[in-house]
Amino acid sequence: MADLRAGLLVAGIVLLLIGVVLVEYPLEPQAIPVNNKGASSIEAVQVNSPLMSQHFEVSWSASAVGTMQYGVCAQIPNAPTGLVGNCSQTGSGSGTSGTFSFSASNGQFVVLFFNGSSGTASAKTTIPTAGVLVIVIGVILLLAGAALRSQPKVQAAQSGPTPPVPPDQTATPPASK
User: Fold this and answer.
1) What is the DSSP letter of 154?
2) What is the spatial distance between Cα 69 and Cα 91, in angstroms, rounded to a whole number?
3) How far apart are CA 122 and CA 64, in angstroms?
4) Which residue of 59, 135, 161, 166 sits 20 to 30 Å from the alpha carbon of 40, by its own alpha carbon?
5) CA dist 1 to 52, 99, 145, 149, 151, Å?
6) What is the CA radius of gyration of the chain?
């Protein structure tokens, strides 16, 4: 029982550590759309991460100078000019290439615009689902290991010579002839 308890505690601690690493550096990056600044429709990605903020990494590369803009908004703006004032967090970078990163909370919308000639822009986000799941399993194992109390082992009765049993005194002696 003590081995099971120790095993559960060790497994729980190991899973907690792995889960923390996976939350910080998730395994499942997802591409998100980047709009040309002149686009008539605005696409946005809504953050769906109730436990923690979601991290975004944006990069661009162009043969000529271009500008990358982002906004973290409560609602989808109707134009790139709507980013300023309508969004809680905005930023931009310009040049022939660059990267930047930011975080957004659950329920917010992330909008990305690239304005430049003959360039490419990409953005990815990491969703920490696997890390959160591993942390939850680690906590469950830790709780199960803590719930198991080490119980003292019951010692078997010591075996030794058995004392002789006295003859039955109530029995009648055999009759002689």
Assistant:
1) P
2) 6
3) 16
4) 59
5) 37, 54, 10, 8, 8
6) 35
Q: What are the pLDDT tens digits along the chain (177 aa)?
A: 678 888 888 999 999 888 888 777 666 666 666 666 555 556 777 887 766 777 888 887 777 787 888 888 888 877 666 666 678 888 888 888 888 888 888 888 888 877 766 666 777 776 667 788 888 999 999 888 888 875 555 555 566 666 676 666 665 666 666
What's 61's DSSP letter? E
Q: Which residues contact 3 (CB under 8 A, 6 or more apart)?
A: none
- How many CB atoms are located within 10 Å of the residue 140 CB? 13
Other beta carbons within 10 Å of 163: 6
Task: Dihedral sign for Cα 156, 162, 165, 166, please.
Answer: negative
- The pTM for the full model equals 0.55
DSSP state of 106: T
The two tokens of residue 45 are 């990605």
What is the residue type of 63? S
Which tokens go with 32? 């998100």
